[in-house]
Amino acid sequence: MTTTPTALQSFSDRIWRFFVSLKVAVALLSLWLLGSIAGTLIPQNGNPVQYVEMYGTAWSNLFMRLGLFDVYHSTWYTLILLLILLSLLACSLNTLESKIALALREPKRRHVVGTGKKYIHYSIPVPDEDLALADLRQAVKKRFGSVESFEDGRGMHLYAHKQKQAHFMVYLIHAGLVLIILGGMLSALFGFEGIMEIPEGESRDYVFVRAGSDYNRTPIDFSVRCDDFNLERFSSGAPKDYVSDLTVFENGKAATSKRIEVNDPLGYGRFNFYQSSYIEKAPLEIRDSETGKSARALLQPGEKTFLDEIQAAVSLDGFRIHSGMGMTANLSMVKLNGEVFETTVLGDAERNRALQEGHPLSASFFQNEPVYVTGLQVVSDPGVGLVWLGSFLMMIGFYLTFYTSHRRISITLRDGKVLLAAASQRNPAGYRREIENLLKDAGFQPATPNGEGPA
To answer: Could you give the count of Cα atoms lying within 13 Å of 130 in the half-sphere of its Cβ?
Structure first.
């Protein structure tokens, strides 16, 4: 009686064949690679205006529809990762039964039977079977560690094998790849990259997290204080190096502190704080000559603010640090009545006082150096541990897969002959040399494989 597979069984078989297909696995890995390359080469989560300038309107719209400006959070990228995971699991399960048989069941037969490149056969006549058996047992034990001896109706037998675990080393590679994918998905779903700007001497307990082309203010469970900021300059006045001294406070107590610089972050909890930038702010004091009132402002170039005390808007058009000469600033000031005043502020107090004399709105520096704000890149990457572990497992797996091999040897003595059969999971040429050396150790002359050889 024959049975006809149901439509459900037929459909499940097609799904199974799809996921265990080597072509499908290669295609999925290729798509993953291409997506990762796109996410690396194309700036992610940038300003739409920037994309239009770089690629033009038509290409920018196409890239945006395809999710290429936020690859790692896109639906198609996540779908590829899920399909790769399913393919890896299916391929592993599909080959597990055969590998168990090769590693565990086949050796229990204590015979090596087969033809092909991975099999080696010798037939060697011997004058004394007992002496040959003793010499072969010693030689096999030397190279395999242990050897089994048994007798049946077909003669005396020796059997040994080693590195049976080699059949399973490929699963280390699979496991490593799975962990890397899971780590990437975990980081994409729950990690973030943001910025934190802290004026020198102040603290912040929030991060501006990138959300598309905007940033959302996101609180964190602790605060970070910038204790000190140091900027080193070239003789021309250009910035040479900058570092920040940071202290983390949790529940009102200092938890840790560190001086950070580029590529040497502060790590705390699931966050890493990288030194990424800094802001120089001009310490300005504006005075209304008519009312005698004054107000202070900290501005960076291009920044504009309104000062209630003097009822005037102030814009910093330019700000420079001159080596040995101090600071200079170019200001634009507008009063409520529409009057516009432009002036240059000098670091030398006496010269600046003379320059500002008689102006309705006069400006000066209230200290001799800029006020610095340290710019930190804040990265939360919860999957990084899985990625590192997966990478380690993959490297170990590749090494063990290529440099270990299940090797078996079966020797039978009967009718005045040594009948040797051996098989190797890989590198049969190297294993043949090992068998030849084993025979030499047992006192036999080099023999011709797969045929007769002299005793």
So the answer is: 0
The number of CA neighbours under 13 Å toward the Cβ of 65 is: 5
Residue 259: strand pairing partners: 245
**Strands (DSSP E) found in 264-354:** 266-268, 271-288, 294-299, 304-307, 312-322, 326-335, 340-346
**In angstroms, rounded to a whole number, what is the distance separating the alpha carbons of residues 33 and 284?**
52
| Residue 241: DSSP 8-state | E
CA-only gyration radius of the chain, Å = 38
Q: In 23-180, which ranges are E strands?
A: 119-125, 148-152, 155-162
Tokens 């890239």 sit at which residue?
63
C-alpha to C-alpha distance for 194 and 251, rounded to whole angstroms: 23
* The token pair that represents 8 in the structure block: 């459900």
- Is residue 351 a contact partner of residue 344, using CB atoms and an 8 Å limit? no
Beta-bridge mates of residue 216: 209
For residues 38 and 44, what is the distance between their CA atoms, to the nearest angstrom? 10
pLDDT digits (tens, 9 = 90+) for 160-170: 999 999 999 99
CA nearest neighbour of 355 among 321, 337, 329: 329
Cβ contact 315:304 at 8 Å: yes
**Of 74, 87, 76, 77, nearest in space to 26 by CA:** 87
Cα–Cα distance, 414 to 419 (Å, whole number): 8
Which residues have CB under 8 Å from 294's CB, separation 6+? 285, 286, 287, 288, 309, 310
Mean per-residue pLDDT of the chain? 88
Query: What's the token pair of residue 164?
Result: 């049976």
Q: Taking a C-beta distance cutoff of 8 angstroms, is the pair 329, 364 a contact?
A: no
And the tokens for 318?
């330019």
Residues 6+ apart with CB under 8 A from 172: 393, 394, 396, 397, 400, 401
For the segment 352-383, what is each residue's pLDDT rounded down to a tens digit? 999 998 889 999 999 988 999 999 999 888 88
Question: Strands 266-268 and 253-260, how do they pair?
Answer: unpaired
Structure tokens at 40: 């690396």
Q: Under 8 Å CB-to-CB from 357, ≥6 apart: which residues?
A: none
